[in-house]
Amino acid sequence: MGGPDGRHSLFERIVGEYGGPLVAYAARVSGNPSAAEDIVQDAFLRFATSWKGPLEPSPQMTLWLRRTVHNAAVDAVRREERLRALHLRGAEERGGAVAPSSGQGGAPGDVSDAAAEAAEALSILSPRDRAVVAMKVYEDMSYREIAAATGLSEGNVGFILHVARAKLAAHLAAKKKGFPR
């Protein structure tokens, strides 16, 4: 490792290797690309102060970073849901002001219709279910890897995926027939 400069360059290498995939994962879980960058930045700050292992990419490091980002992304979604509920309650008390947007992305036309439809469909799931689906579908993780990253059992991961897929299928079928969700 050498001195502080060697440690700094190793840390930069780790950020370079893990940063992009972690931001993409956090964006899928949170539904908010700009929040995802903050989530991952905070995870790397925690990593810099808390990681006790060697500064070499490893399965343990991957798991630690993934779990930290997962927990922070789920917390961010929950926090946003609480704020939205408070805003709606306040709006009802004031006579119907409009609720804030969910932070689901950029300007209209930034993503394909299919991608927008998929993101909208994922928004019907709970933060935990959305995270598990994102790990399986977008990250192609095994049940064992998802269980390790989330702290759930493999059986629970399988059940969550089964129920989430059914919810998504029902939502998309209803939408296709013109029914609101």
Describe this structure in words.
With 181 residues, this protein is mainly alpha-helical. The chain has two domains: 1-104, no CATH class; 107-181, Arc Repressor Mutant, subunit A (Orthogonal Bundle). 73% of the residues lie in helices and 0% in strands. It is built from seven helices and no strands. It has helices at 4-30, 33-50, 59-94, 113-122, 127-137, 143-150, 154-176. It starts with a helix and ends in a 5-residue tail after the last helix. The model is unreliable at 97-110 (pLDDT under 50).
Produce the secondary structure layout.
Blueprint: H1 4-30, H2 33-50, H3 59-94, H4 113-122, H5 127-137, H6 143-150, H7 154-176
Features:
mainly alpha, 181 residues, single chain, Arc Repressor Mutant, subunit A
Major pleated sheet: none
The CA-CA distance between the termini, in Å, is 55 Å
Task: Please identify the structural class as seen in this structure.
Answer: mainly alpha
What spatial form do the alpha-carbon principal axes imply? globular
Radius of gyration: 19 Å
Total beta strand runs: 0
